[in-house]
Write a structure and sequence with these properties.
By secondary structure, the chain is mostly helical. The protein starts with a helix and ends in a 19-residue tail after the last helix. Helices cover 70% and strands 0% of the residues. The chain contains twelve helices and no strands. It has a single domain, classed as ABC transporter involved in vitamin B12 uptake, BtuC.
Length: 319
């Protein structure tokens, strides 16, 4: 049973860190399937974390136990609107999508830190009193072995993230909306010829990306960080982007890649439970997520086929 307990702890910790990556990576899939590169996933997570924490601190007495759920919904809305900056720049004005995404990252961090300083008179917010808490799934947590591993001590947001990956797969590959979204990312001219509004679909893709990126950032802030500062979101958005590429721009692939990177992020916590890692210096565990990200992309990026028009602005009438 000790072995099962160790596996349960490793799996639980991995899923905690993977959940924000899953949400954000799914957002990246929607954006990039529409043909718009979204380097700004980091900035969208930062905005989501900032809004989620500030809303939670401000309205916890009003919403009570529902505060964290309302907080992430508000974070989704604000981040979706914030993503319009990237959409307008890269779709309407045909700016370089990479440069626009990088600008989003700097802008989100600047806004978050400036308002934090103005409102809290310090470099970070207070800690929230209404975060998400782990819970057991009734009845299912009683199943031998499986119950301890998958239905005990997880956040409800983790189950939502996994379910959302399958919903995203269904939407993208089994619905007319998904077909239109993929068509504007593969061959926008052909899609336009068939009556599909390329600009509208790309705007929708980027806004969905914004909403899910904000969701990922707010979930991370309300489960792991519990406050907002310059270091709340520190590379998770870029790891999410790597999960999109590693997962070959497929929702379920992104889900698997996010869980893998989530495990890498949790190594510094769970390494004491793994015999051959317990004596490894902690600094190596802390850099492991970034090293594994580079190795994963170096090994698989050549085999991953991006949408054919990814990063190419569409000019109506041009072939």
């Amino acid at each position: 049973m000790e072995f099962i307990e160790i596996i349960s702890r490793i799996l639980g910790s991995s899923i905690v860190f993977a959940t924000p990556l899953i949400f954000t990576a799914l957002g990246g899939v929607f954006s990039e399937r529409s043909g718009v590169i979204n380097i700004g996933l980091e900035g969208l997570m930062i905005m989501g974390a900032f809004v989620g924490i500030v809303f939670n601190l401000t309205f916890s007495s009003f919403f009570g136990d529902a505060t964290p759920w309302v907080s992430i919904l508000v974070a989704m809305i604000v981040s979706a609107l914030f993503a319009l900056v990237h959409a307008v720049a890269s779709i309407t004005f045909r700016a370089d999508q990479v440069v626009s995404g990088v600008a989003i990252n700097f802008l989100a961090l600047g806004i978050g830190l400036f308002l934090t300083k103005q409102w809290y008179d310090k470099g970070q917010t207070d800690f929230v009193e209404k975060p998400f808490y782990t819970a057991d799934v009734p009845f299912l947590n009683k199943i031998p072995i499986i119950g301890d591993m998958f239905f005990s001590g997880w956040y409800w947001t983790s189950y939502v993230a996994i379910l959302l990956a399958f919903v995203a797969w269904f939407v993208i590959y089994k619905t007319p909306f998904g077909l239109r979204l993929r068509s504007v990312g593969e061959h926008p001219m052909a899609a336009d010829t068939n009556g599909i509004n390329v600009f509208k679909m790309r705007y929708i893709g980027v806004m969905i990306s914004g909403a899910l990126g904000g969701l990922g950032g707010s979930v991370y802030a309300l489960t792991v960080a519990l406050n907002f500062s310059h270091g709340t979101i520190l590379g998770q958005g870029f790891i999410s982007l790597a999960a999109v590429i590693f997962g070959k721009w497929h929702p379920l692939g992104a889900l698997g890649a996010a869980i893998f990177f989530g495990f890498a992020q949790s190594l510094s916590i769970v390494s004491s439970d793994i015999a051959f890692l317990e004596n490894v210096p902690s600094v190596f565990m802390l850099i492991a997520p970034y090293v594994l990200t580079i190795l994963a992309l170096a090994g698989f990026i050549g085999r991953a086929e991006a949408p054919k028009s990814l990063g190419e602005p569409y000019i109506k009438g041009n072939r």
